[in-house]
Amino acid sequence: MENLQPRPVWAHFAALCAIPRPSGREAAVRDHLLAWARANAIAARVDAAGNLILSKPASPGGADLPGVILQGHLDMVCQANAGTGHDFEHDPIRPVLRDGWLVAEATTLGADNGIGVALALAALTEPGLVHPALEVLLTVDEEDGMHGAHGLAPGSLAGHYLINLDSEDWGYFYLGCAGGVDIEVEQPVERVPMPADRVVRRITVSGLRGGHSGLDIHLGRGNAIKLLAEAVRELAGQTDLNLIELAGGSARNAIPREAWADVALPAAATAGLAAWAAAKTAEWRTRFAAGDAGVALACSPDGTAATGSLAPAAQARLLDFLADARDGVAAMSADFPGTVAASDNLGVAALTGTAFRATIMARGLADRQTDGLADAIVAQAAGHGLAARKTGAYPGWTPDPASPLLARCRAAYAEHFGAEAGLRVIHAGLECGVLAGSHPGLDMISFGPDIRGAHAPGEAVEVASVARAWSLLKAVLGALAQP
């Protein structure tokens, strides 16, 4: 990144890549930024929730103008391909430059939202930049429930305008977003001794692309957990099968890419497993030819040794629930053509010991849609004899097409780039809805560069669009510095 422009933005992003920052463990990156702020005489404080708030007075003559808040989040989604050995608690992100894009090949990159953070930080020290009073709000734990934004105390911010820098499509201003809620399924399960004539095999689903559970949910990609349940249930219908353990997915807001189950079978039934797995792989590759043609099913003797498996009734309920669970697009928007209005994602599932747990994330542009979808999922789980509850709800951000900030931003974009910016709402969770609750009256907008594959290995950001986003941010701040 040393030769990329604009240099101040990429220097900050390089520092973020060097410091591990999973959700809930942002202390190291926050300490780095506190030291940077002190070195640059920038006022900084950490609130009770762990959010970092930086501030800088207005340029001369701008003290009476409405202040501007630049907002992003410090944490990143941590996803790596199996076998990479990457430790997100200790290892830096190692991106490469390819065809004008900065890419993390085997892990997530953290451009979501590291690039937005870098843009905001660069604005605080840009020589000659004319601006109103600036505050930079960098929240924690955004990707795991927006706990930092929820914990921001009313009155923590003085600004009137808020520019969220957590969008991922250049050339658009976002003026609304989906809300979300998690559905936690947790159920004790009964185990019984296995017959002595069984052999253990591991069934693995791999090769899927995954992706952001909101932005990519409409692309028709496979969900590894659901495909695993489909395959194991099918195999159980063909032979006497005992389910021992299973696991899939690692984040509620990422489409699961990999999943596995350990099963016990009669020794005679193992002879046809390879052919069955090959046929199932071919079937799936036809089904997902447009979006996930690399999907694969494999069987191997790598399963754990075990003396017990699920009781038959518990096994049937669990496999039926996972195979039948709602997942994907639930409704499209009537107001914003081509935009998903409601969806859900079976993001994590695990059967270990005597407990089964799963997390499903529901999203909706209207809070009533989100809640209704979540209620339907809870009812579906109950229909399979599983206990489920809603948790971690956060509100959506209602669009305001008459926003004065939107008008100023659109004018700055047109003047600077000679074209009109598009308008969108996003089927993902931005923190704007939460911040509107603690700071009513904020006038908000969101924009950012082109980021592809967020929440999945291979995440990439287009270098040229970062430069354009930086130019736009400076132009907007300059426009807001005028009465």
Automatic annotation (TrEMBL):
Name the coenzymes or cofactors required: Zn(2+); Co(2+)
According to its record, what are the GO cellular component terms?
Answer: cytosol
Question: Tell me, what is an example of a GO biological process annotation in this record?
Answer: proteolysis
Q: What is its EC number?
A: 3.4.13.18
Show where the Peptidase M20 dimerisation domain sits: 205-266
The alphabetized UniProt keywords are: Cobalt, Dipeptidase, Hydrolase, Metal-binding, Metalloprotease, Protease, Zinc
Note the InterPro entries from the entry: Peptidase_M20, Peptidase_M20_dimer, Peptidase_M20C
Q: Does the keyword Hydrolase apply?
A: yes
| Molecular function (Gene Ontology), one example | metallodipeptidase activity
Q: Which reaction does it catalyse?
A: Hydrolysis of dipeptides, preferentially hydrophobic dipeptides including prolyl amino acids
Q: Plastid as a keyword?
A: no
Taxonomically, the superkingdom here is Bacteria
Give the similarity note.
Belongs to the peptidase M20C family.
Q: Which PANTHER family match?
A: CYTOSOL NON-SPECIFIC DIPEPTIDASE
Name by which UniProt lists this protein: Cytosol non-specific dipeptidase
